[in-house]
Amino acid sequence: MTYVVPFSYNDYFTYEIEVGDTLESVAAKLDIEVYQLRSYHNTYCPLEDCIGRSFPNHLKLLILQSEEEKQAQEAYREKIHFSSKDFKLPFLPAHLDKNYLAMYIIEKGNERHSIKEEINVKWLATDSNEYSLIEIDRKALYINDNYSKSPSDELAEKTASIFYPLEIVVDSDGKWIDIYNFDSVRNRWYNLKNEILSDFNGNAVKERLKAFENKLEHDDIIRESFSNDWFLRAFFNGLNIEYKEALKFQNTISFPVSHKLRDVKFIVEQTILPAVDQYNLVNITQKGLLSDNRSKDDFENGLPFSHYISETVESEKLQGTFEAHYFLDPNTNTVESLFLECAIELDVPQKITIVISNLDEQGKLILDTGNELYISVDRKPQETEQEIKWMLIAIIVIVALLVYGIVKFYF
Predict the structure, then answer these.
(1) To which H or E segment does residue 24 belong?
(2) The predicted structure's pLDDT at residue 369
């Protein structure tokens, strides 16, 4: 019988959080980067105490790295192993099989909602052209207990199961480029649809499911729908590229801030540290500003391209930011953890924050009860209700173009 030592903050060097402390103020007080403070604490704390964009309301102690540990690790930091004279960071996913906790914090104006899910990422094969076949399996989705599922939510969850495990193709730059198991997805649907029809009655449902099935026959529709998946876009971000001798360059990043805005373009400075950091991880940072041709009106109206042929005038241009910190396994150069945040300053500001951490197989996923995906009945404007329901469905991956025709009947 295996004995597991109970967790105790007494076993760690800690900082006691004081009234008024924020993640940023504590990092400044301790002269440490915010992402380093967050990453170290999240590595050792219980899952319910993990830090996202801010401290959980109940958190009292923050786990810090001791000076002795810092000095010991500093003396043995290993340099990054590049594969060419152009400082190409190789993508070596062989034998990757890890569980991850992904947390998405969606902010729209003063509203803030949080969703967590557990995902397994598993390497299956790599061919002679260095294309890798990776399996993505969504194990669990967690939403606060006070969120009541509607029939549309239950239908979405059940239908979503046909997409997983999802097999994707990832290139040598670590960027996902295609879906491999289209036929398997379709076969799961044929095996499941009668069960769904027995659980959800009505001619309208049958018609919507038929439309869904017709779209499911087209690989391009499925592929395009998954192009807006937050986990795939953040995790397989194409980090394994040439960094040149300076180990720093300007890069263009596109990221789907929301289903309405879709891909938003940013110009970032991308940097890789020459050696592993104090946690023995490869450290890559992307930080920059909005660089999209669309005007404010274009964004507000959800246009995927600029409405005007001429360049947007300065007064119509928006402000926006993108910041990402990646921590990679130095043996495989695959993600151990990441923090990504992008924001657009619309009339109602929008922001998506993504935190992904390696999850021990025996770990238990627990919600931070301070973050609720809930809207009370007395304040449900139609547009907000549809937006939140869509975010839920997007996260459980009833992919946008395939499912919208089904679930909109319930809105």
Answers:
(1) helix 23-30
(2) 33
Phi, psi of 367 (to 5 degrees): -75, 145
209 versus 239: which is more confidently predicted?
239
Distance, in Å, from the CA atom of 143 to the CA atom of 120, rounded to the nearest integer, reads 19
Structure tokens at 247: 């180990």
Cα–Cα distances (Å) from 192 to 5, 229, 372, 395, in that order, read 43, 23, 31, 21
Contact 289, 345 (CB under 8 A): no
Reply yes or no on domain 97-410 having CATH 2.30.230.
Answer: yes
pLDDT for the residue 3? 63
Contact indicator for 229, 397 with CB cutoff of 8 Å: yes
d(CA 220, CA 286): 30
Running DSSP on this structure, what letter comes out for residue 121? E
pLDDT at 221: 92
3-state secondary structure string across 201-251: CCHHHHHHHHHHHHHHCCHHHHHHHHCCCHHHHHHCECCCCECCCCCEEEE
Beta partners for residue 364, in sequence order: none
Bond prior to 165 in cis (omega within 30° of 0) = yes
Q: Are 244 and 86 in contact (CB under 8 A)?
A: yes
Task: Identify the H or E element spanning 320.
Answer: strand 320-328
Residues 339-368 pLDDT 10s? 999 999 888 888 999 999 997 533 333 333
Map out the domains of the chain as residue ranges. Answer: 9-75, 97-410
Burial call 226-251: b when 16+ CB within 10 Å, e when fewer: bbbbbbbbbbbbbbbbebeeebeeee
CA torsion 396-397-399-402 (nearest 10°) is: -70
Confidence of residue 401 (pLDDT cuts 50, 70, 90): very low
Q: Which is more confidently placed, 193 or 404?
A: 193
Looking at residue 325, its pLDDT comes to 95
Mean pLDDT across the stretch 376-405?
A: 38
> What amino acid occupies position 375?
I
